[in-house]
Amino acid sequence: MAKGQQSLESPSAITRRLRGQSSIELLVLLAAFFAFLAAWVPVINGVRQASAESMEQKYAELALSDLVGAGDEAYILGSGNAREVEVRLLGDASVGFDAESRNATIFFLNGTRNVSARTQFSTAGNGIVLAGGLNRVLVRSEDGKVVFERLG
After folding, report:
1. Cα torsion for 14, 16, 17, 23, to the nearest 10°?
2. What is the pLDDT of residues 106-120, one digit of tens each?
3. Cα(85)–Cα(137) distance, integer angstroms
4. DSSP code at position 9
């Protein structure tokens, strides 16, 4: 070829070169995307874990509120009154009652935070164990004390 003349590439050579360049660009974009995603995985896991703990706490507060409300009602209505309550928990827990301070507390068996509530009644017994999921509890008043019994 003479000086100043451009070499002409065949159309198939140009297509192969452009296809190779776009493949490399796609790989670079995918690598950048996965690097960005990998940087956010710990943040997403932290948010997910905090959300699960918060949900467990709220379910426990609602369950304890239902149990204490049923106990207060049975206590106010007097001996012989009973009420069946359904409570849902996300994890296994025990419910303890302190007769002196008149407090009810849900103790999570996995070691997370506990939930407490004030009661109007004293209990006949130390408490009940509730499983994760739906629990049926019979709450009844006997001789001025409230008894909690898990039904199933």
Report:
1. 140
2. 887 766 678 888 888
3. 5
4. P
